[in-house]
Design a protein that fits this description.
Layout lengths: L16 H15 L15 H12 L10 E6 L2 H22 L1 H8 L10 H4 L2 E8 L1 E4 L3 E4 L3 H18 L3 E2 L8 H6 L6 E10 L15 H4 L4
Antiparallel strand pairs: 1-2, 2-6, 3-4, 5-6
Helix pairs in contact: 2-6
Bound molecules: flavin mononucleotide.
Flavin mononucleotide (FMN) binds next to loops.
Length: about 220
């Protein structure tokens, strides 16, 4: 028999099919406008907005509810500049040999290079760390479960919350990203997962004219 002693009633609002269709249509319309933005206004973000965004991400499902993530909000100009300097060093190597010809070709339509002005302009850098293990006083290192899957789901929810808050972001991977743990003095059990500058878009910014795969290509009905 499963032990249900520590269970509580589900807090669930039922939605009629008509209401569901309406809500989902509005949500879809809004989500289809989400774009990666690489040029930011320097206007600061209200702290309460940032806290709500992190709370949404922190509500994500995770393997055995281990919640193997830490979200660092970097707004201090000196830390941001250390991060930019280290990121540009790695990106210089990436754009000058490490990425290879095919990757460089795939990146052409984005017009990106190793210069990362957005690490200075964006008022907040959210540095997401995955927690590989926890340290238990009695048992020592305890590995977390499905860490990548869990943190990726949380980041999906984070990006959704950022968009719903009227903010924009760039999912950035200046790999290898171990400099982030060093600069932010994170503990040994944490590894940098993504670097996400967040803010308001620079006026009249442009985004690459890319297309998403149509529904028929990504949905297979059995
Ligand atoms: C895991 C991951 C890593 C990414 N790394 C970078 C990056 O380092 N630099 C960058 O400018 N964009 C990066 N992107 C953004 C993608 O280029 C962008 O999501 C893609 O082109 C689709 O555009 P959209 O987000 O506007 O739909 C990354 C996105 C993901 C999901």
């Amino acid at each position: 028999m499963r032990d249900k002693s520590a269970h509580i009633p589900l807090d669930h609002a039922s939605v009629s099919p008509i209401e569901a269709a309406e809500k989902l249509r509005a949500f879809k319309e809004q989500m289809l406008k989400r774009r990666t933005v690489r040029e930011f206004d320097t206007r600061p973000i209200d702290q309460a907005l940032l806290d709500d965004i992190i709370s949404v991400a922190g509500s994500a499902p995770s393997g055995a509810n281990k919640q193997p993530w830490t979200f660092c909000l970097v707004q201090d100009p000196s830390l941001k500049s250390q991060i930019r300097e280290a990121a540009e060093k790695e990106e210089f190597e990436n754009y000058h040999g490490r990425m290879g010809e095919r990757w460089m070709n795939d990146l052409k339509e984005f017009g990106t290079d190793h210069i990362k002005e957005f690490l200075k302009e964006a008022p907040c850098l959210i540095v997401v760390f995955k927690r590989i293990y926890e340290v238990d006083e009695a048992e020592g290192k305890q590995n977390n479960y499905y860490v990548n899957e869990s943190v990726a789901i949380a980041v999906g929810m984070l990006l959704t919350a950022i968009h719903l808050a009227g903010l924009v972001a760039v999912t950035h991977t200046p790999s290898p990203m171990n400099f982030l743990a060093k600069v932010l003095e994170r503990p040994e059990n944490e590894r940098a997962f993504l670097l996400i500058p967040v803010g308001y878009p620079k006026e009249s910014t442009l985004v690459p004219d890319i297309k998403k795969k149509p529904l028929d290509e990504i949905r297979i009905a059995y």
